Amino acid sequence: MYWMESRPGEDGRNVIVGLAADGSVEDVNPRPFNARTRVHEYGGGDFAVRDGTVYFSNFLDQRVYRRAPGGEPEPLTPETGRRFADMVVDPARNRLVAVREDHAGRDPVNEIVGVDMENGGEMVLATGNDFYSSPRLSPDGSRLAWLTWNHPNMPWDGTELVVCDVDAAGRPENARRVVGGPDESIFQPEWSPEGTLHFVSDRTGWWNLYRLSAGNVEPLCEKEAEFGAPQWQFGMSTYACLPSGRIVCSYIDHEGSHLALLDTEGKELEPIETPYSSIAFVRADVARGNVVFRGGSPTGPACIVSLDPSTGEHEVLRRSDEIEVDSGYLSIPEPIEFPTENARMAYAFFYPPTNKDYAAPGGERPPLLVMSHGGPTAATSTALNLEIQYWTSRGVAVLDVNYGGSTGYGREYRRRLDGAWGVVDVEDCANGAAHLAERGLVDGDRLMITGGSAGGYTTLCALAFTDTFAAGASHFGVSDLEGLAKETHKFESRYMDRRVGP
Fold first, then answer.
1. Which residues contact 237 (CB under 8 A, 6 or more apart)?
2. Per-residue pLDDT tens digits for 189-207
3. Are 355 and 317 found together in one domain?
4. Are residues 458 and 494 in the same domain?
5. Is 231 part of any domain?
6. Structurally, how many domains does the chain consist of?
7. How far apart are CA 42 and CA 337, in angstroms?
């Protein structure tokens, strides 16, 4: 079993960690290797494994390296400046299938390629569109699926799911779009062990689970919940296929994040009780019938979890090395829904001040810090965040806002920022603060706001164009949308086409 760890104590180096059958743990890439790809700049999908040999992208030179068991990393691809991500193993043809980003020309070129696992030779498998992701081989290696999209769309706006046959030499044949388009977002194509193609689509307005059956799209679970997520990075996974037509999946609704077992024949969704309020990177341990994921909760640090979906029994395999905090100093978030502009509702998590050793003077209401997440197409969760707990343990309430444009509340909600970035997000942050002040939970004269990147832009706009907040802090915030559109990287270079307000 393998996972990635980010190590602040090693200058933020990303380390692939391997857990052997005997329980021993080792770092796969030693110093100075940093397993991190720069495809789309945000990376993800940094490594793949075959029979204990790990292939990974190294951050410094973006070459793919091969590390055999007990050996040292050796370069596989030449020093061309090309970047590789989202790698999967094609064992029948002794190659990796990956997304490649070539910066040799004036504009980066994105393609899907095969990379020979012995000599690093490359074969282009799909090209011609602006972006590609999620190449996935069928279990018998005869078919290849992938996602693709073009500007000005981002992957949560509109993508296409393409499937092709693969001949004995590894060349694609009969490539055809099977689902998706400019106004339908497809997420995480996945083949079941039996060879059925599954995927997530927002065709109903919510990211729900589907499969291709005899060439037709068959819904597996349609409900007002999100089984997908915005693909800012490669390698994201919210569900995993197990044998005998079962799927273990995570999803988000207004009550939070959940894990469930889906019977694809009866189409019944059976919740699995866990202590985790944030569940991501769901993978199948097919040999054991287990599922592995990254879990987080309001009171515990992030961890790698192995779970038996039949019994619900779980084991923590690895826990973040964050400092243990006495629960008497931890604020437990309360999900709130509040009115905002145009007769709409918006959402947030409210953290009241909490410190077992202190109480506020009688009748005094606490100051409030509003937090605005980045993206802006992203979302906050209730996983333990020590930055939030820093404030709440010192008498400051926190409102962590999922403003209009955030994910987790359906397609219509995340499209609210189209043409209104810097407007809707600001209104929601201001109205959330006002809502708490009206309820008497915070001091309306001591309201603050903070955020980073896109959240920094929200912060600057809130301070410049409203009188709601007495103070604010923008961290690495966007301040010039025109400059951002001109100078940012290819992946989000047309993002402003949908997001710029009047």
1. 188, 190, 280, 281, 282, 283
2. 999 999 999 999 999 999 9
3. no
4. yes
5. no
6. 2
7. 31
How far is Cα 474 from Cα 457, in angstroms, rounded to an integer? 7
Same domain, 311 and 368: no
Sign of the Cα pseudo-torsion (69, 74, 80, 81, in order): positive
Which tokens is 143 given? Answer: 């078919």
- Mean pLDDT for 26-49 is 96
pTM score of the predicted model: 0.93
Contact predicate 497/476, CB 8 Å: no
pLDDT of residue 500: 54
**What are the phi and psi torsion angles at 343 (to 5°)?**
60, 30
Distance CA 223, CA 269 (A): 11
User: How is residue 369 written in tokens?
Assistant: 């810090």
Which residues form the domain of 356? 327-499
Q: Same domain for 335 and 318? A: no
- The predicted-structure confidence for 262-300, as pLDDT tens digits, reads as follows 999 989 999 999 999 999 999 998 778 899 999 999 998
We report the CATH number of the domain holding residue 485 as 3.40.50.1820
Q: Each residue of 406-452: pLDDT tens digit?
A: 999 999 999 999 989 999 999 999 999 999 999 999 999 999 999 99
Clarify whether residues 318 and 336 are in a common domain.
no
Task: Specify the pairing of strand 47-50 against strand 53-57.
Answer: antiparallel
DSSP letter at 9 equals: G
Which amino acid, 429? Answer: C
Q: How far is CA 133 from the centre of its chain?
A: 14
